[in-house]
C-alpha cells in the first residue's frame, strides 16, 4: 500500500514528477543546467585553476548535491536509488567539487557529470511534442547516449593518465581524438599510449567501445516491443506498450501513448 506524500516530500515530488507549468519549467531548468555543466567540465582546465574556477565548482557542487538529496528524499525505493550508477556518479562529482585539495589528482572524475545526459532523456521523452519520436527511437537514443558518455569518460581517463608523460597528449581534445580513433579501430598511429597502463587503457577503450557500438547496431536491427516505465510499487522498469497493470505486482501503470494509427 502506497504511503501518501505530505509537506516538502509532496512539493518536491510534484516538481520532479508532476505535471503543470512549474514542474515543466523546473525540469527544463535542470536539463539546461546538466548540459551547461557537462560543457563546463569538458572545457575547464583539469590542472591549472584559479579562484574563479573553485567558486564555480562550489556553486555547481551545491546544486548537484541539493538535486541528489531531493531525489533521494522523494524516492520510494531508496536503496535502488543509492545503487544506481547515475546517482553514484553524481556523488563522485560532488566529492571532486567540494574537496579539490584532497582529490586534485582525480579531478577528471568531474566528467562523470556527462552521465546525467542519460537521465536527461527521461524528461525529454515526456514532452508531448517530442514524445512520439522518442517512443519510436527510445532504445537507439539510449544506446547512442551510452556510447557518447563512454567516449567522454574514457577520454578523461586518457588525459589524466597521459598528460605530462606523453608527447601526443597535451589537451583534452588530444585525448578525445585518441579515444575516438581507437574505438573506431582507425588507429592513425600519430598518438600512442605510453607505458603498460596506457596500453591497458587502449585495450579497454577498444573492447568496451566496440561492445557498446555493436549493441547500438543490434538495437537498430532488432526492434523491441517493450517500453521503459518504472512501476512505483515494485520498481519493475520494462512493460509491454499496451500494459495497464504491472505484470509483477499488479499495480496500475500509466504509459504515455500517442494512440493507435
TrEMBL record:
<dbReference type="Pfam" id="PF00520">
    <property type="entry name" value="Ion_trans"/>
</dbReference>
<dbReference type="GO" id="GO:0005249">
    <property type="term" value="F:voltage-gated potassium channel activity"/>
</dbReference>
<keyword id="KW-0813">Transport</keyword>
<dbReference type="InterPro" id="IPR027359">
    <property type="entry name" value="Volt_channel_dom_sf"/>
</dbReference>
<dbReference type="InterPro" id="IPR028325">
    <property type="entry name" value="VG_K_chnl"/>
</dbReference>
<keyword id="KW-0472">Membrane</keyword>
<keyword id="KW-0407">Ion channel</keyword>
<feature type="transmembrane region" description="Helical">
    <location>
        <begin position="86"/>
        <end position="109"/>
    </location>
</feature>
<keyword id="KW-0851">Voltage-gated channel</keyword>
<keyword id="KW-0631">Potassium channel</keyword>
<keyword id="KW-0406">Ion transport</keyword>
<feature type="transmembrane region" description="Helical">
    <location>
        <begin position="144"/>
        <end position="165"/>
    </location>
</feature>
<keyword id="KW-1133">Transmembrane helix</keyword>
<feature type="transmembrane region" description="Helical">
    <location>
        <begin position="55"/>
        <end position="74"/>
    </location>
</feature>
<feature type="domain" description="Ion transport">
    <location>
        <begin position="32"/>
        <end position="217"/>
    </location>
</feature>
<feature type="transmembrane region" description="Helical">
    <location>
        <begin position="24"/>
        <end position="43"/>
    </location>
</feature>
<protein>
    <submittedName>
        <fullName>Ion transporter</fullName>
    </submittedName>
</protein>
<keyword id="KW-0812">Transmembrane</keyword>
<keyword id="KW-0633">Potassium transport</keyword>
<feature type="transmembrane region" description="Helical">
    <location>
        <begin position="200"/>
        <end position="217"/>
    </location>
</feature>
<dbReference type="GO" id="GO:0008076">
    <property type="term" value="C:voltage-gated potassium channel complex"/>
</dbReference>
<dbReference type="InterPro" id="IPR005821">
    <property type="entry name" value="Ion_trans_dom"/>
</dbReference>
<keyword id="KW-0630">Potassium</keyword>
<dbReference type="GO" id="GO:0001508">
    <property type="term" value="P:action potential"/>
</dbReference>
